[in-house]
């Protein structure tokens, strides 16, 4: 497999010579190391620049005179320098100081415009360009696993492009998925993280193990930064769909200055994680070391009032399964242009495509390779299920059977995505900024499952000579989202008073069209449905539009007291006809204690540089699924004619779920900013929770989604960083977070206990019941006498819960000199449980299992007669600590840089390196259990699913 890198011609000279008046310089930190990607601007002018890899910058066309140079960089304190600009070239050296608390930084998400973090009563997490570039991950949710201290993100499968479980501040809904809303350059994008209504299901009744995720194909190339806010007051301005938080991605638009280009080549290997495999021989049967390679190139710069940033990448890798290859191609561009003296245009465009195979897992029926091997199912095919004990002849027979079965699987996914954003900003008067933004996200997914006659015969699903020639199943989904927003922000400063106010309106419309077309009695070798014996089709359409108006003001007094007030009003097509607009208020307070003179008289700035108290209250929502409010009639075919039955009863009073959050806490920096601590205590309550409530039996109608439930979450969020060593020769930074969570379904409005995931009541399910954690595991529980015989068998018992009591992340960065950097990060969880179907089935099929008393097995006449009564024994704690990523980067000295290049670096990274776990299975891999599109997913089931591959990557990057 070979990829050809497209040739990119990069001019060695700038597009335009420097103007007669310019400001240049070098930005360094306290240790003297150059600071790359720092943003610089001349205050009061639309002139700015950005440092390159060497810390150099150029700001062109600066008006001579007295100015203030402002320098910003995530992780550093804002620097403002008075400078005198004269005709010609002006050299200005800049020294930045690290500041882990970084309250002077500017954020956008949830504020209606730019806002300094010190004015906010809520936390906004920011992931910098450097952190994104240093990460070896290739998809958004994997990147966020250790970069968002208050979020928990778990992959449901190791197969590429599959769904994940994302939670911030607990489970707010039992009818909608917990994935946050995602924006790219102000455009709301598809964030489907469950199976589609019409989609390929290779996981069976347990659902979602290998469903395709819309997060996985958001390209990470050319991203400037990512902002995240959890649900609560921080998301009030996003209204009816923001209770789970908001993630906003900002792409690069380029900066004025010389043209800069970069080329990077990455190569490496993906190898399976084997520590959780029960049999030593499983790796030899199902897995391999897969080669991977990626090529990327980019160019950015600007001249006059026009800036640009363009990048592209191509990636190919062998699957770590014994069959299949994964391919990805992406392109992204961003542009900026001045419009007269007070206006500016900013636009972006991205396109990416992905292709990868899918392997059957979970409860998919028939042949499923992991269940066949790890679950002991090979006994049904005439093999000894203890494959480590097979003799040479039996082992070769098993190898031949599995090798052919894997080669005959033909399930694939193709994704194409196009996103564009266009923003126009004008400043008609001092202090007033008006911005209009419009954009489109279009995502096309094609899933195809081909089941041949040869596969059916080989896996003994049909007999030789059968008339069942096989099937081709195709599923096409087209998502198109339109976003439009108009915002005005005004800044007022007079004396001790400062007021930042914003008003705006937003429209988004999502159209989701799906088509399934299936062919049966298909000849082996066919790739299309044309010529099949029988073809059938189905379609589905989901459409929702939301209109919102919002206003917010942030009032500051003496730069130490801040008051936030805001409200949003929403109208949504999923609301009932009698509901009207829904309102979401917020209020927040900030008190900067270290601005008080009496505080400074008690503690010096050296020991306590910054300390602030904050508290807030806010409301956000989750709107019902499209058309849930409508009364419908179902039609089906009967004898070649149409037959009508009752459909959905409908609810004219249907409204969104409303999650109200109270939170309070403090942020502090200590020991000359060598350490920081941030603590938040929150309590949220979801009223009007949407549940499928049963209709009166006499009505003859089905259940209807209604606002009848109440859910409660509460916990703490603790974040800390410390710099134990810093000096001219380097710097060591350690960070960590701890989050606790208590979740409860307070009320179901008399709705009977219902299932969110899992299998039947006779086995094990994740259920919703008043007074219990949402989605707790319920199944059969056995207790035993002292001699090991069965004392009692109880049905429908509490067996554990899938979400943890505590979770968090940790990271370390060691920089030696100005050229050598080591990064490491990981995450952990404690207090959750999950059921292992693989271990349970191995017991059923006769493999030795010590957790079930031998006396009970003997009395029952064998494991097959007792396995349904002992589900509690196969529910395990899923506590874990994972070392996710380790990377080492070295920036080459000038004498080793290729001629014509500006910089060069070599890096090595390892992903999914080490795991400590309390469970016998991979605690992260989880058939999460979302039954329908957009449905709630809580997890709790380990069932024949791949672990994520471990990867080792070497990359070389050159800048010009």
Radius of gyration: 29 Å
Tally of individual helices: 9
What structural class is derived from the secondary structure elements?
A: mainly beta
In CATH, the homologous superfamily of the largest domain goes by the name TonB-dependent receptor, beta-barrel domain
Gross CATH architecture of the largest domain: Beta Barrel
Unreliable stretches: 1-19
CATH topology-level fold name of the largest domain: Maltoporin, Chain A
User: Assembly type of the shown chains?
Assistant: single chain
* CATH class term of the largest domain: Mainly Beta
How many discrete domains?
Answer: 2
GO molecular function, one term: siderophore uptake transmembrane transporter activity
InterPro entries: Beta-barrel_TonB, Beta-barrel_TonB_sf, Carb-bd-like_fold, Plug_dom, Plug_dom_sf, TonB-dep_rcpt-like
Protein name: Putative outer membrane protein
Family: Belongs to the TonB-dependent receptor family.
């Amino acid at each position: 497999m070979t990829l050809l890198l497209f040739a990119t011609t990069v001019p060695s000279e700038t597009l335009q010579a420097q103007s007669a008046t310019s400001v240049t310089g070098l930005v360094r930190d306290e240790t003297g190391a150059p600071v790359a990607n720092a943003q610089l601007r001349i205050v009061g002018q639309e002139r700015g620049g950005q440092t390159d890899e060497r810390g150099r910058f150029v700001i062109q066309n600066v008006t001579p005179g007295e100015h203030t140079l402002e320098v910003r960089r995530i992780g550093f304190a804002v620097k403002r320098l008075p400078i005198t600009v004269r005709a010609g070239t002006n050299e200005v050296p800049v020294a930045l100081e690290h500041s882990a608390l970084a309250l002077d930084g500017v954020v956008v998400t949830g504020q209606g415009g730019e806002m300094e973090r010190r004015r906010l009563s809520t936390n906004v997490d920011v992931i910098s360009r450097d952190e994104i570039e240093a990460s070896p991950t290739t998809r958004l949710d994997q990147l966020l696993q250790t970069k968002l201290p208050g979020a928990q993100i778990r992959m449901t499968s190791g197969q590429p492009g599959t769904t994940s479980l994302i939670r911030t501040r607990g489970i707010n809904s039992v009818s909608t998925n917990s994935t946050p809303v995602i924006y790219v350059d102000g455009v709301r994008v598809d964030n489907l993280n469950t199976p589609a209504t019409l989609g390929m299901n290779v996981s069976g009744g347990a659902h979602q193990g290998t469903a395709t995720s819309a997060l996985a194909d958001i390209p990470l190339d050319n991203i400037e930064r990512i902002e995240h806010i959890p649900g609560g007051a921080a998301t009030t301005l996003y209204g009816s769909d923001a209770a789970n938080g908001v993630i906003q991605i900002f792409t690069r638009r380029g900066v004025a200055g010389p043209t800069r280009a970069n080329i990077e080549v990455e190569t490496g290997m993906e190898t399976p994680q084997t520590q959780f495999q029960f049999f030593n021989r499983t790796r030899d049967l199902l897995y391999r070391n897969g080669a991977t390679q990626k090529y990327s190139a980019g160019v950015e710069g600007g001249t006059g009032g026009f800036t640009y940033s363009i990048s592209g990448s191509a990636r190919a890798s062998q699957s770590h399964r014994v069959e299949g290859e994964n391919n990805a191609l992406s392109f992204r561009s961003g542009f900026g242009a001045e419009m007269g003296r007070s206006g500016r245009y900013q636009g972006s465009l991205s396109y990416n495509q992905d292709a990868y195979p899918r392997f059957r897992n979970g409860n998919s029926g028939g042949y499923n390779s992991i269940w066949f091997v790890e679950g002991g199912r090979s006994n049904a095919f005439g093999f000894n299920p203890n494959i480590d004990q097979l003799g040479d002849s039996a082992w070769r027979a098993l190898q031949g059977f599995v090798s052919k079965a894997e080669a005959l699987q033909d399930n694939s996914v193709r994704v194409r995505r196009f996103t564009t954003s266009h923003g126009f900003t004008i400043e008609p008067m001092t202090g007033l900024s008006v911005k209009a933004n419009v954009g489109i996200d279009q995502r096309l997914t094609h899933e195809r499952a081909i089941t041949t006659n040869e596969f059916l015969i080989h896996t003994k699903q049909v007999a030789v000579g059968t008339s069942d020639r096989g099937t081709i199943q195709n599923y096409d989904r087209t998502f198109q989202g339109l976003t439009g927003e108009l915002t005005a922000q005004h800044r007022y400063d007079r004396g001790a008073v400062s007021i930042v106010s914003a008003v705006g309106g937003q429209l988004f419309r999502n159209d989701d069209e799906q088509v399934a077309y299936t062919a049966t009695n298909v000849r082996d070798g066919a790739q299309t449905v044309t010529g099949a014996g029988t073809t059938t089709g189905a379609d589905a359409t989901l459409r929702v539009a939301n209109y919102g108006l919002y206003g917010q003001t942030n009032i500051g007094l003496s730069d130490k007291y801040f008051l936030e007030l805001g409200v949003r009003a929403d109208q949504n097509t999923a609301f009932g006809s009698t509901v009207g607009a829904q309102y979401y208020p917020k209020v927040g307070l900030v008190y900067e204690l270290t601005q008080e003179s009496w505080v400074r008289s008690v503690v010096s700035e050296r020991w306590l540089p910054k300390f602030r108290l904050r508290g807030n209250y806010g409301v956000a929502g989750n709107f019902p699924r499209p058309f849930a409010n409508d009364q419908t009639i179902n039609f089906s075919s009967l004898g070649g004619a149409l037959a009508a039955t009752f459909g959905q009863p409908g609810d004219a009073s249907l409204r969104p779920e409303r999650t109200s959050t109270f939170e309070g806490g403090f942020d502090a920096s200590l020991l000359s900013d060598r350490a920081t601590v941030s603590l938040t205590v929150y309590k949220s309550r979801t009223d009007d929770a949407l549940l499928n409530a049963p209709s009166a039996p006499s009505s003859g109608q089905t259940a209807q989604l209604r606002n009848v439930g109440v859910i409660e979450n509460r916990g703490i969020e603790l974040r800390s960083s410390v710099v134990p060593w810093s000096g001219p020769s380097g710097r060591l930074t350690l960070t960590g977070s701890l989050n606790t969570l208590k979740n409860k379904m307070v009320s179901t409005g008399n709705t009977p206990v219902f299932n969110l995931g899992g299998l039947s009541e006779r086995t094990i399910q994740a259920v919703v019941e008043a007074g219990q954690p949402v989605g707790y595991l319920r199944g059969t529980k056995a207790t035993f006498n002292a001699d090991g015989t069965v004392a009692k068998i109880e049905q429908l018992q509490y067996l554990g819960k899938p979400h943890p009591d505590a979770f968090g992340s940790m990271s370390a960065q060691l920089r030696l000199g100005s050229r050598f950097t080591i990064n490491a990060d990981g995450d952990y969880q404690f207090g959750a449980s999950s059921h292992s179907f693989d271990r349970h089935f191995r017991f059923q099929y006769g493999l030795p299992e010590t957790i079930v008393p031998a006396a009970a097995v003997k009395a029952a006449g064998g494991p097959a007669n007792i396995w349904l009564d002992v589900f509690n024994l196969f529910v395990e704690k899923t506590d874990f600590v994972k070392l996710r990523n380790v990377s080492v980067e070295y920036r080459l000295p000038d004498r080793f840089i290729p001629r014509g290049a500006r910089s060069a670096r070599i890096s090595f990274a390892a992903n999914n390196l080490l795991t400590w776990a309390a469970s016998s299975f991979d605690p992260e891999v989880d058939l999460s259990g979302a039954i329908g599109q957009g449905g709630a997913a809580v997890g709790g089931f380990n069932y024949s699913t791949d672990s994520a591959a471990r990867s080792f990557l070497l990359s070389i990057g050159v800048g010009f």
